Each structure stands twice: as C-alpha cells, then as structure tokens.
Amino acid sequence: MNNSTKNFLIFIAVLSLLFILGDVFLWVNITNGYNPSQYQSAYLNQYPEQVRNLKGLSILPILLLVFASFIFIRSAKTNFIKITTATIATALALIIIWKMFTLL
C-alpha cells in the first residue's frame, strides 16, 4: 500500500470515528433530556427523513468502528499505539452496544 492510499484510508477512518463520536454524544444528550419511552422518536428526529432507519442507525456505528479500528491498528507503528487504539475501540463498542440495547 503506497503512502497516499494509506493517508486516504486514515482520513476516512478519522471521519468514521468523528461520526461515531457525534452519534454517541447525541445519544448521551437524548438519554439525559428525555424519558425512556421517548428515546426512539427523539433519536430518529435528529436524522434526515431519508436515513431514519433504527436498525441501520444502530448497526452503522459498529461497522464504522470496525473499519476505523482496523485501519488505525494496521497503520500504527508501535505496540503502545496499537493497544491504545484497541482500548478506545473497545470502550466505544461497549457504548454503542449499550445504545443499541436501549434503542431496540
């Protein structure tokens, strides 16, 4: 893999990670501001009507996290960075799984 391809994949992985973090922060704000019976509607109302699919919006962050983790771990040069990346990915995966169980 040449350097420009690697940089492009890292850029896409960073964008994926930003989407995941934005989705997690959105979910935390919804859980703090609404009753549990209103979580689904409040969450779906934050997205455009074309992408309002509860299952898709629950699975997409997991797929993006797997992609971003794979790219970051493959591009890391030291074991410390690999371990840090894996730890952050695990923490985000747990938060996303918590979100999935409260939504579905």
TrEMBL record:
- Highest taxon of the source? Bacteria
Q: Where are the transmembrane segments?
A: 7-28, 54-73, 80-101
Keywords for the protein's UniProt record, in alphabetical order: Membrane, Transmembrane, Transmembrane helix
The protein's name is DUF5658 domain-containing protein
Protein's organism: Flavobacterium suzhouense
